[in-house]
Design a protein that fits this description.
The protein is of the alpha/beta class. It folds into 2 domains: 5-178, Rossmann fold; 200-320, Heat Shock Protein 90. 34% of the residues lie in helices and 25% in strands. The protein is built from 8 helices and 13 strands. The chain has helices at 28-45, 56-66, 87-98, 119-135, 155-162, 209-223, 227-247, 292-299, and strands spanning 5-8, 20-26, 49-53, 72-74, 105-109, 142-149, 167-171, 174-178, 200-205, 251-259, 262-269, 302-308, 312-320. The strands form 2 sheets. An 8-stranded mixed β-sheet has the order 1-8-7-2-6-5-3-4, with helices on both faces. Strands 9-10-11-13-12 form a 5-stranded antiparallel β-sheet, with helices on both faces. Strand 5 (105-109), helix 4 (119-135) and strand 6 (142-149) form a beta-alpha-beta unit. Helix 6 (209-223) packs antiparallel against helix 7 (227-247). The radius of gyration is 21 Å and the shape is elongated.
């Protein structure tokens, strides 16, 4: 990968404020260990806590090298599921647990991006990486290293992922500013491709929630969605359709189709969601409303959201169909 890196950044132990977000492209186990262990040992020397969420085989490598270091906690990323829309809340929880009393924390988070199942998953992973900068912009308490295996390099995918990271770590302790980083408030979310041929469509408005649930249940059953997933989908569908009716002009359009062993429900309305973090931050107990998109992320295998003043809002709910 050709990283767009410039002069070395301020060493982590000299930079006291701000969320540090580094991408670390590596090839092979040796490079993985050099980069991640360098990052972890910097933290230990500065008396910082470390949270590591990497695939199981990488966990074993690091645990062997660290020898039970008590300041390093390994967490199971599979508990958050494969939907990237759940991961910001998971990291916020882990950082809060280990950063009590203002202690600085570092995170090492690797998504096995070579195993992502579709272009939609890769796109949402990219969105998640950029939104991490937004979610933790005001947090002085931690920094994060994102290793990405570049052994079988997909140049385009790696370049697009690198644009979501302000820093690039290339060799062990060397972190450089990433000139290709997409800074600022606006991020170019990719436009959603059109639905597959043969999709079904129905309009809905106030009083039509039962019709929407029935339509989705029938189409999902015909597509082979398992029974346990049907009940989760019914809740998510109700929440998203309700949002359309309340905030999207009084109703919308539902489309359903099957694509690459995934059942997809698409909701379109004329509303606009200005907050790109909606659904990714865990609602508080005192919060009134705002739980619909959060529930959709928890219940579905993937959620895609696109919203603009001129195009309105589109929400796609993905449910995997077992082979």
């Amino acid at each position: 990968m050709s990283a767009n890196a410039s002069a070395p950044a301020t060493p982590p132990d000299r930079q006291s404020a701000g969320f540090r977000h580094e991408m670390f492209p590596y090839r092979g186990e040796e490079q993985f260990l050099t980069g991640t262990l360098g990052f972890i040992r910097e933290a230990l020397e500065a008396d910082e806590a470390v949270v590591v969420a990497v695939p199981a085989e990488k966990t074993s490598l690091l645990q062997h090298e660290l020898g039970g270091e008590g300041a390093v906690t390994f967490v199971d990323m599979t508990t958050a599921g494969s939907n990237p829309g759940r991961h910001i809340a998971a990291w916020a929880t882990w950082m809060g647990e280990h950063g009590e009393g203002g202690r600085r924390v570092r995170g090492v988070g690797e998504t096995a991006w070579h195993t992502v199942r579709s272009a939609a998953h890769l796109s949402e992973l990219r969105n998640h990486e950029w939104l991490l900068n937004r979610a933790f912009a005001d947090s002085p308490a931690w920094s994060m290293l994102c290793p990405y295996d570049a052994t079988d390099e997909d140049q385009g995918a790696l370049e697009s992922l690198s644009r979501c990271h302000p820093l690039i770590r290339q060799e062990g302790y060397t972190s450089s500013r990433n000139d290709g980083y997409l800074s600022g408030e606006l991020y170019p979310f990719e436009a959603l491709p059109g639905p597959c041929d043969g999709y079904q469509e129905v309009s809905y408005t106030t009083g039509d929630l039962a019709v929407v649930r029935s339509k989705v249940a029938q189409c999902a059953t015909d597509a082979g969605v398992p029974r346990e997933a049907l009940s989760k989908l019914a809740v998510a569908v109700t929440e998203i359709a309700t949002n359309s009716i309340r905030h999207g002009g009084g109703g919308g359009t539902l489309r359903t189709w099957t694509q690459e062993s995934v059942f997809i429900c698409e909701f379109r309305d004329t509303g606009y969601m200005a907050d790109v973090m909606l659904g990714r931050i865990r609602p508080t107990a005192e919060q009134i409303g705002g739980r619909g998109l959060w529930l959709a992320h928890q219940l579905c295998d993937l959620v895609e959201i696109r919203s603009s003043h001129d195009q309105g809002t589109t929400v796609r709910l993905h449910t995997d169909i077992p082979q």
